[in-house]
Every structure is written in structure tokens, then in C-alpha cells.
Amino acid sequence: MRKLSKATKLIALLSLCCGISLFPAEGGPLQSMDLSYSAAVNELAQKSAAAFPMLTGYVLSAEGGIVYIDLGEKEKLYPGMELNLYREGKPFTHPVTGEVLGRFETALGAIRVSEVRDRFSIATQISKAGDLAVTKGDRVRMTGTRIPLALPAVETPDPKGEEAKTITRELALALTRTERFDVWDERRLLSALQGEGISGPISFSDPRVLEIMAKKLNIFMLGLGKLSGLFVDLQIFSTSTKSLLTIASAQIQPITPPPPVQIARPLAPESTIGKEVARESTGRESIGREIGKEPVGKDLSKEPIGKDIEKPIATIESITPPESASSTVPGAWRGPRSNEALRALVVADVNGDRQPELVVAGKDQIIIYSIDPTRYRVLYTMPKDDRLDILSVDAADINGNGIPEIFATSYAKSLLNSFALEYREGKFVKVWENVNLFLRCLPTGPGEAYQLYGQHIVFSRQPWGKIHQYVWSKDTYQKGPILNLPSQVTLYGLALMDLDKDGKKEILTLSGTESRQIGSTRRVTVYGADGKKLHRTSDEYGGTDNFVELPVSVLPPANPTTEFNRPEATDPVSSPLQPRLIPVPGKLELYVCKNIEPVYSVVKSSRFFEKSQIFRLAWNEDSLQPVWESKEFPEYMADYYEGDFDGDGVQELAVLLVQQNLLSSDVSAIWIYKL
């Protein structure tokens, strides 16, 4: 996937010297605010303490590393929680009074909870202490004493400034006041590590440092804080397993309204990621409105959205999503954030708990979160793998066991190495590896169930091969029926819908000319089942920063998990992977997103998007017409997904937004809206 070159960033820097700002300086508005950290760090500390309740329980059974315990939802367990295993021994008494004071204990290791039920939970043993096997009647606990927690300096835009010192000091005090943590500040921690022979600059991602903290210093947890915009986040990791245990976030409130900040006019609207904005205090926060309703603001009745529109369109004002996962604004909540450009997302019940999970893909790993408007918990983190370059992620129950598999397309070093994950026996495992296919799941099955499709690369100047359905047969994924599609239609930006109700699905594809250079033509085209073109929208949609360089001298493999036969390569073909088209269940409508480039951008050598939007198009006998549009997001939309995520009967829309920064790394945020 394309990364901005140093030359590109130099162009942007020169543009700043000429008085043009591509983005406000990071943290710029904060410099003119008086901020109170106390409320935010207290909220952060309370959320963190609540993630580690004092617990004791019993082992119900243990076999093959899977441990059942008698603690469940009532005790506030959650997937990802780690508990210590131990065995009680003989009692010991006071030497004078003979009073029984306690029992001897033998440590057995630790478990990580994978599934929580009402009265019990299922866990996986993640470490052992000695040769003793865990058996029924052994004990588990989350210690009732203060938990040693290392807290290095909170990351801020100016790590040596007073802001970093202030917020770190207040956070350490707030965590200590919860009476749940024994906080090791950076000075105490560095002194102890130097005493163990660690010198020079210390990296807390160094496995040796974490091992010393866990085994020599008995520090069980590492807290990494970061100030981002008007939010402070705290991630707590296990020093022994290096797993992310919990994430908490809180908003910092300004004491006084900030004075106007004089900055050069940006080429892109200020990002919603990590910024505080004013918003309506009453009513449901709406992501968009029906086209043709009463306009808000400027009357655009004489400015149709395209040639196919003859009715007035309402003005859609820009919206900045609420900046708190526990936002009091109805209808929208914030999901996880990342300091890198995330690639894709999907929502599905991937662990069989009858609750949908949020599956997020970065370049080289997948992370799974529980969905909760007040808190997101990490259920699974796939170890990073530098052999991967993940492009898309989908989920569908193809093998029919009731739990959807996760299908990820990866294309690294001109080779496809896609894979599938499935939840089995309390953990996520790869059930299909090194797959030489682009994979997507489309709602084409009975009841609009999602089915799996794959597309390979062919030896041709037009490298996209045929698309086949893949089915589960003989305990593996097998090639099924071929889709009869027009030449060079790809799985990306593809939908199949029966628009004329004749039992045959029409083909809808988001395609056109698009390259890494600014300027493109991409529209939704409708083909009949016979391949004849029926309609093409006059308005442009789509737009992507997701490109692959496809070699044209590649022979398709006989089996999707065998190596490619690669003769001498010629110049590769750069091909865009367009965003999803999402059919609306039970209607002749579909969602499509649009990423919008600035017409006045100074960057001509790479794709850059200043804002994005989602539209709902309806089939009106012979054409697609927009009937609804979202409010504009001032970020690039990498992916989106629609469904009823919280089970209240109202559809939600999850959007993955990426703030594309020319002078620093990209950052990502996920938002979920009521439709």
C-alpha cells in the first residue's frame, strides 16, 4: 500500500513556507487553552481500576490447557482478563495461640479469560509455574492487594514540556488514590532497571525489559499513556504475557474558551480525530438526512447533486463525532483509535457469544474488540507478522458451525498470502493459510447471508482473473461456481442484487479510471445478468488510497494454497481496491462511500483525500438515485460496515476514518452511528 515519500513531504513543507497550511499543527489549538487534567485523569484512573476487580474463585475443570472457572458475568469478568492460578496447601498456625492464620500456597501459573457466561467462564492457561497440572478444586484470583503498575511519562506533543510532567504526575496520583495500584513512576522504574543492568535509552517494548519487570521487580503491569488532542488514553499491558489488558480514555475539559487561533487556511478541514467541537445538546445525533427533506441553511434546490436528480437536496453540515466512548450524545459513540493507518473493519459475532464483535485490521495484524458504547475491550490481538500486508477483512460462517470465520486478504511482495481465522476451543486459530486469492464476502446467500468469493491473478496485461464462490466441502474450502461478470470486474466495489425481481442478480460495480495521480473517474455501473450495461451513475463515488501493484507475468496456481509460477516479470499494473458496496437488506438500495480530493492540493504525486461521505442509492426502475447522504467527515474513509451492532433493532454504521498527515504519521479512529 502506498506511503508518502520524503519528496512528497518536502513539497508539503515547502508549501507551508509559502504560507499554505495542509493541516493545523498537531496540538495547535491546545496551546491557547487553559486545561484542567484532574477530572480526566481521575476518570481514567477509575476506569482502569474497575478493569481489575478483586476476585477469587475455583477451577471447575481443566483439560488440554482449557480451564473452566466459577466466575462469570456477575463478577464482572471480561474476555482478555488474566487471573493467577494457585493450589491451597496445609494450614499454618500461630506458634503461641495455635490460631490458624492461613494456608500455604503453590503457584500454578496464569490463565486468560476467553469466554464469559452467566455463572462460569472459559479460559486458556497462558503460563505454568512448575510441573503441577491444574485440576478441579484449584483456585484462581485477581489479587486483592495493590497491583504493581509501571507508569512511564505520558506521551505528549512536547515530551520535555511542563504539560507532560503535569499530566503524568496527576495520573500517577489518581491511580494511587484508587487503592488498586502501586504505581512505579518513571524515576523509580528507571533506577530499578539500571540496578538490573539495563542502561542507556530504555524501550518498554524490549522483551528483556518486560521480563526483568515481571520476574525481577515483580511489576505485573505496564501503563502507557498518551495525550491526543483533548483526550488522554491509557493502555495497560501485562509484563509477563505482553498482552494488552485494557484501554481507557477520558476527555480533558478547557477551563476557559480558547481565544481565536490565527493559522493559515488549511487545505483540508480540521480532523475529527482527537478534537473537541461544539454540538447540539438535545435530540439524537444524526449521521445524515433523507435527500429532499427541508434544507438546513443554503437552499440548493437549483443545484442538483447530479444529472439524474430533479428534486432539491438538503444542505448537510459537517459533523464532528462525539469524542468520548461514553458520550452522552445519543446515537453515536467512539470506538478504538490507533496511531497508524488502519486498513479495514468488519462487525460479526466471531466468538459465538451472540454479541457482535468489532474486527479491525492493520497492515500486519488483526485486533478484535467487544462492542460497548461505554468501553471497548480487547478480546484478541494477533501477533504482528511482517510477512503480511492486509488489504481487507470480512466475516461469514462458511463452514456452517454457527461461528463466522474471519477472512483477511494480504498481498505482500507481489504475492498473495491471505488467510482465515476461526474461534475454536476458546482461542482464535488460522484455519486457512497462504491463500493465493483476493477474498471478499458478499450477501448473496439465502436470506442475504454472506458467502465467500475469491479472485486470483492471471498472466495477462489485464491481471484480474475470474471470480469463484468458495464453499466448505470435505473439511476444507473448495472452489465453487464461477461468477459470469464483465471483463476485469474485481471483488472490490462489487455487489450482486436482483433489481428487477426476476430471480437473476444484476451486477453492480464501483469502477472507472483511477491512479495514484490526482484525478479520476469512478462511478457505479449496473450490468444485467447477461453482462449488458444497464446504467451508470452520473455522480462519482468511491476513491481509495488502497492500491496493489499486480505483476502481469503470473500464472494462476492450480490450487489456491500452492506457490505461484512466476516467469520473468514485466512492469506491474497499479490497481485500486475500491470501497465496499453494501446492499440494504430487503430493499433495492445500497450504501456507497465517497472520498473527496482537494481540487487545490499541491501534492500531485500521491492520493490525498480531504473529506469523505456515505450515500444511499435506490434503484428506480432504470437508474440509481441518491436518496440519503451522511454528513461529511473531514478524513479519509478507509472502510465502513452496516448492521444492528447492539441488538436494539436499529441499524448502525461503523466507519473507519484515517487522518492523512503529510508531515507526521497517519492516525485512525472508528465511530459507530445510529442510522
Briefly say what this structure is.
This protein has 5 helices and 41 strands.
Explain the overall architecture.
This protein is mainly beta and 675 residues long. It has five helices and 41 strands. The strands form ten sheets. Strands 2-3-6-5-4-7 form a six-stranded antiparallel β-barrel. The longest helix is centred in the first third of the chain and has 16 residues, at 162-177. It is globular.
Keywords:
single chain; 675 residues; mainly beta; six-stranded antiparallel barrel; five-stranded mixed β-sheet; 5 helices; disordered N terminus
Low-confidence stretches: 2-34, 256-285, 293-330, 515-519, 563-569, 600-605
Relative strand content:
35-45%
CA radius of gyration: 27 Å
| Major sheet details | 6 strands, antiparallel, barrel
Widest β-sheet, arrangement of strands: 2-3-6-5-4-7
Euclidean distance between termini CA atoms: 31 Å
Topology, pairings included?
Blueprint: H1 6-17, E1 35-36, H2 38-50, E2 55-63, E3 66-69, E4 82-93, E5 100-116, E6 121-128, E7 139-142, E8 147-151, H3 162-177, E9 181-185, H4 186-195, H5 207-215, E10 221-228, E11 231-238, E12 244-251, E13 253-254, E14 288-290, E15 332-338, E16 344-348, E17 357-361, E18 366-370, E19 378-381, E20 390-396, E21 405-412, E22 415-416, E23 418-424, E24 427-435, E25 438-442, E26 451-457, E27 464-473, E28 476-482, E29 494-497, E30 506-513, E31 521-527, E32 533-536, E33 547-550, E34 573-576, E35 581-583, E36 589-596, E37 611-619, E38 624-630, E39 636-643, E40 652-659, E41 667-674
Parallel strand pairs: 8-9, 8-10
Antiparallel strand pairs: 1-13, 2-3, 2-7, 3-6, 4-5, 4-7, 5-6, 10-11, 11-12, 14-38, 15-41, 16-17, 17-18, 18-19, 20-21, 21-22, 21-23, 23-24, 25-26, 26-27, 27-28, 29-30, 30-31, 31-32, 33-34, 35-36, 36-37, 37-38, 39-40, 40-41
Helix pairs in contact: 2-3
